[in-house]
Fold:
Amino acid sequence: MPYDVDAGPSVPRKGRRPAFNPAGPSGPALARWRAVAGALLGGILAALLGTALHAQVLRIGELALPVGAAAALVLAGSVITWCGLWARSILIAALSGGTAYVVVALVSLSTETLILTGIEGPGPEPTAVLAGNIWMFGLAVATIAGIAVCGAALRGHRSGGSAPTGS
Structure:
């Protein structure tokens, strides 16, 4: 019987997988890379879409409400939570939120001002500055909230975890 040092016997026996998987690579290493790629993509999309959305202002007479910033935070928190639940890992949720925050920070440093935070000098409308600050600093809160939601949702899904048992 041929023997592969890395994979064991190449002839499948009862209860064992064959040494060669004809379907291609699989297993925990590939799942981990998919989760990391999904977290990075989710963070980038949340940052870019949230940056485009945060500037939407609802005007009611003289009152201007930065509802776009709140909607952008809900979007980012949802994406962060989804990434963590999809991968079943709070670390992936943290990676997604961290990626979003880094992308937002890089976008805010661009010469074309996309996020107004009040440090650009005189001129920007106060509501736009408020929306920029809500988006910029609220993203950290949305990340922490997404991680907390993932932790609470995944608590019972751990192998050998603290899920209640019936008697």
In short: The helical segments are 28-53, 67-87, 90-108, 126-154.
